[in-house]
Automatic annotation (TrEMBL):
Its main location: membrane. PANTHER family: IONOTROPIC GLUTAMATE RECEPTOR. It comes from the Eukaryota. Receptor for glutamate that functions as a ligand-gated ion channel in the central nervous system and plays an important role in excitatory synaptic transmission. L-glutamate acts as an excitatory neurotransmitter at many synapses in the central nervous system. It comes from Muraenolepis orangiensis. Disulfide bonds join 324-377. This is Glutamate receptor.
Amino acid sequence: MDGFMVVCLCLTALISTPHSTSAKELSITTIKQDPYTMSRGSELEGYCIDLISEISRKLGFSYKVHLVKDDHYGALDASGSWSGMIGEVMRGEADLAVAPLTITASRERAVDMSTPFMQTGLSFLLRKDVAFEEHRLGFTSPFSVEMWVGVLIAFLLTGFCVFLVARISPREWESETGGHSFTLVHSFWYITGALTLQGAGPHPKALSGRLVSAVWWVFAILLLVFYFANFSHMQHDDNKHASIKNFEDLSHQDGIDYGTLEGGSSKAFFKSSNNPVYRRIYQHMERHKSYVASMEEGIARAQQGTYIFIGEAVSLDLAVARHCTLTRSEEIVAMRAYAIAGPLDSPLMKNLTVAILQLSESGELTYLRDKWWPTSCMGVEESHSENTLGLRNLQGLFILLGLGLGLGLLIALLELLAKARGLAKEGKKSCCSALSTELAQRFRGGPESADPESSDKSKA
């Protein structure tokens, strides 16, 4: 009877093993990194927070999450001690480390790692104008597409305005022949000559025409100044650094600095590699001490265009989605995986592996990936090159041109109105009748108005 009771107790213990952690609240260490773990007020959120929540629901344990004290993932120092989350798990300060922890041979010897919950590899992050420099430079590159459209519209409006002003203003009509020299074709030819700093006569004689002409000349000169200044600046940038598409390109250039996380698995990969390209990269990073303390620092320096950040592709994809001036190299090397770390010989690790596999098979891991990784840039405005001038940069120039054209048309109308009033007094008719007669004759292309009596005499 006593033996039967012992067997029953043993079976009960074995059956309850998967849920044996429910009696104890697990301490879980993690590290802040978007989008794995982020702060939302006093609470934490992100991919890893959702992951541990789903696992705890399956395995039935309670837990408490805290951030790693030294803000490191875990590396072996010269004294043989582990830092970061790996060190906390080894010292018993945490039961699990749930974070984008890369599985490495040295970490597997120090702790137990679960089956991977995400696959990734090493790539690098840089600004777009550094990555695709050879495609950018051309005669249209100093201005954005919107800017060129704006210049074309300004050209058409100015040509038409010169034509209107010359038609309306009485001084632009030749007194001998009653003809008009500023046709529509000549108006556009005239402003084209101004745009190329050559000039094309005849020039406007009226105040309104001279005002429109002067404003267009100012617009054309300043536009050319900005164009050639930005063209020279972009050509200087091209000579500073070449296009960088892969790790070999990266290792053969010294024009722009690059590095990775201090004390991370990425650094360890380059350090232990026998590949000549990766050895050159490691020697450069050691020589220039170009490591960064966090992902955020690496991304911020890459945005400035003076640094290339080497990191894990899945994390760099998030930076590219959030900052449209950045791009990730298509080359991915050193494929690795993220997993959960626990103490050596922990009975919980087997259950964790089963739970992660179940989440993968049910599509939950894919759902979490889609939830926390945006698929496109959040800020569309950032997609334009910082070196390209757009309408926003030169909007004052277009406003000046618009005001000049409007004022020129107004003065031309006042000039015509003054002449119409004089003709109305001479002919003893209404000002509106004289004004309408003048406008009709100008836009029919006929001679300037004449006195009706003199017209009758000429017919006789």
